[in-house]
Design goal:
The relative contact order is 0.17. The chain has 13 helices and 5 strands. Strands 2-3-1-4-5 form a 5-stranded parallel beta sheet, sandwiched between helices. By secondary structure, it is an alpha/beta fold.
Length: 273
Amino acid sequence: MSISNIVIITGMHRSGTTFVGDILGHNKNNIVLHEPYNPEYGLKNNLEVYPKDYEEVKKSWQQVIRLKYKIKRNYLRDGRIKRILRFFSGGKSNLSRLECKIKSKFQDLNLVIKDPFLLNVVDKLSTEQNINSVILIRHPIAIWRSIKRQGWTLKDGNNELREFCELYCSLYENLLESITYNKRLMLVKHEELCITPIALFEEIYEHLGFELTPSIRSLIEEKTTNELFDEKKLHNMKRKSVDLAWAWKKRQEPEDEFILQSCNYILKKADYV
C-alpha cells in the first residue's frame, strides 16, 4: 500500500486552509499532512517563512511526500508544559506525519498537504510534480483583523501593518496571474466558500478528483450552519459561515483605509473591487 495521489491546500494564514483540509480529511481515502514547511515546528532545516526558492523546496520534497523527514521539536511561543509535550511528540506536524505513514502502510491513500507556507512555490510544484492544488484567498482586512485577534506579531513590530500589506501582495500577485493559465491551480475565495459552501466544495472535490459523498455534504452543512462562534479560538471548525463572510464590514477601523490603498492592485485582480 502507498500514497496514490498528492494534492496541496494552501493560502495565506487565516484564509480557510485549515477548514478545507479538515473537510477533505473526512474522506476515507484521504489523509492530511499538516504544515511540513512551517518554519517553527515543521521540517528541521527549514527556516524561511513562505519560502520563495523552489529549488530549495524541491530538495526536501521527496522526503516530505515519502513521510521521511525530521521536524523541529521546540516552539518558543508555547508555554512550558506544551513545549515539553511538543518536544516528545513533535507536535501536530509530526503526529500527522506519523499518522499518514502508518495508515499508508495498510491502504492506498490520497495525501492532502495542507500548508500555507507553500504559497510562493505552489505554481512550480503543481506544474513540475503534476499536483492539483487549491489556493485560498481572503480579503486582507479580514485576515489582518484575524491575525490581531490571535495576538500574532510580524517581524517588524513598528511597521506591522505595512509589512502585512507587502506580504499579502507579494504572496498573491504572481499567483493570480498563474491561475489564468495553470489548470492545476484552483483559486477559492474565503467569502464565497462561506456563502455557498456546498457549491464551492463540489468544485474543489471535482478539481482534486475526490468523491463528494452524501455524508461529506451533510458534514459541510453541519459545520457551516452552527450558530456558536468564538472569534478568539485559533480554528473554528463549526460556524455560521454566511455571517462570517463579510463580518469585518460591520465596523470600520483606522487601519482599513491603509490596507485598501496598499492592496488595491491585488483586490482588483482578485475581483474584490
